[in-house]
Recover the amino acids of this structure.
């Protein structure tokens, strides 16, 4: 009997390692409008940066398309869209977040528009840690309604490990952390935030999971998570 | 014997955590595209072009096709470098692979012709 409990505990521990949420709301419930509308193309609006780090905007802008394309969507290419947005004097995302989006439907053929608002980007001076608070809002260009929304408090541990361990390993880790330049590291912070947030995005049309992922957990709308370069 | 059972259970559960093969692979696109936005110099442009080339030639994603936007942005970067014909050819490849891109590719072609 004891062994049964032991095994049960092990099972629970391993299972909890996989789950990303404590309240398993289904995707079909949380993101119902996305399943109803069956969007294909998404426009990444230039992120809104309300943090004190002026560079945070570019860290996010460069790393948004990979997780969303890998979820099965057609992501309108970043550089092309920036050029067109500038040409249309539509580069200031703040002007559009609360306004009709049909313009982007016409210009880009976009079904969705993603608004990314970076609220906080703070480096701790002692530990190699970055705290980011970021809000992601996906709106339908057809109905202007919010179809996906998540806000994350993300603690990113930027120390790098060589995986060697021991005294020598610690020295090697230190050297590697120094080599890993700040910019590359911060690109990775944004990459991890985006990847985590969109890991629960309903699968798009190019994904084999399209329309079969409705019962998977949606994740919490507001979440706190610790991430590192291995995520 | 029971130990083996525990180990097998643990391993199979861990196995269920592993992520399946991604739809597309991107080489080091995130870093090179950031550097390009930041610097837009010859070095960062070359690095980005090299990344696009690798994504196209060594694509290992489960779909086995070039990811959305790669041909288009590659073409756009080539156009910026006055490689008009090569750039235009890339843009057309994007439309071929992803017909939903036609709306804005047509628009960018018009902007270029101005």
């Amino acid at each position: 009997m004891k062994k049964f409990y032991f095994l049960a505990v092990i099972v629970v521990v391993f299972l909890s390692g996989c789950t990303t949420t404590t309240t398993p709301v289904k995707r079909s419930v949380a993101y119902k409008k996305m399943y109803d509308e069956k969007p294909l193309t998404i426009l990444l609006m230039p992120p809104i940066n309300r943090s004190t780090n002026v560079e945070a905007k570019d860290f996010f802008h460069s790393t948004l398309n990979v997780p969303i394309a890998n979820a099965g969507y057609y992501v309108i290419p970043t550089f092309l869209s920036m050029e067109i947005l500038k040409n249309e004097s539509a580069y200031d995302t703040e002007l559009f977040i609360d306004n009709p989006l049909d313009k982007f439907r016409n210009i880009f053929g976009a079904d969705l528009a993603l608004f990314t608002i970076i609220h906080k980007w703070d480096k701790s001076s002692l530990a190699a840690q970055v705290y980011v608070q970021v809000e992601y809002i996906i709106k339908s260009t057809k109905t202007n309604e919010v179809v996906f929304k998540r806000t994350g408090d993300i603690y990113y541990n930027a120390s790098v490990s060589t995986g060697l361990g021991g005294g020598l390993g610690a020295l090697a880790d230190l050297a590697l952390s120094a080599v890993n330049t700040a910019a590359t590291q911060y690109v990775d912070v944004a990459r991890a935030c985006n990847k985590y947030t969109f890991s629960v995005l309903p699968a798009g049309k190019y994904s084999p999971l399209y329309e079969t992922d409705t019962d998977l957990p949606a994740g919490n709308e507001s979440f706190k998570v610790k991430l590192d370069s291995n995520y | 014997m029971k130990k083996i059972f525990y180990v097998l259970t643990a391993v199979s559960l861990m196995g269920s955590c592993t992520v399946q093969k991604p739809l597309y692979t991107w080489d080091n696109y995130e870093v090179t595209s950031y550097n390009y936005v930041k610097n837009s110099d010859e070095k960062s442009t070359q690095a980005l072009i090299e990344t696009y080339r690798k994504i196209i030639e060594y694509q290992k994603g489960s779909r086995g096709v070039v990811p959305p936007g790669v041909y288009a942005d590659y073409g756009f970067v080539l156009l910026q470098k006055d490689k008009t014909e090569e750039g235009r050819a890339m843009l057309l490849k994007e439309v071929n692979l992803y017909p939903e891109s036609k709306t804005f590719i047509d628009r960018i072609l018009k902007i270029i012709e101005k």
Chain B has one domain: 21-113. Chain B touches chain A at residues 2, 6, 9-10, 13-14, 16-17, 22-24, 26, 29-31, 33-35, 37-38, 61-63, 67-70, 72-73, 76-77, 94, 98, 100-105, 107-108, 111 (CB under 8 Å). Chain B has a mean pLDDT of 87. The domain at 21-113 of chain B is CATH 1.25.40.10 (Serine Threonine Protein Phosphatase 5, Tetratricopeptide repeat).
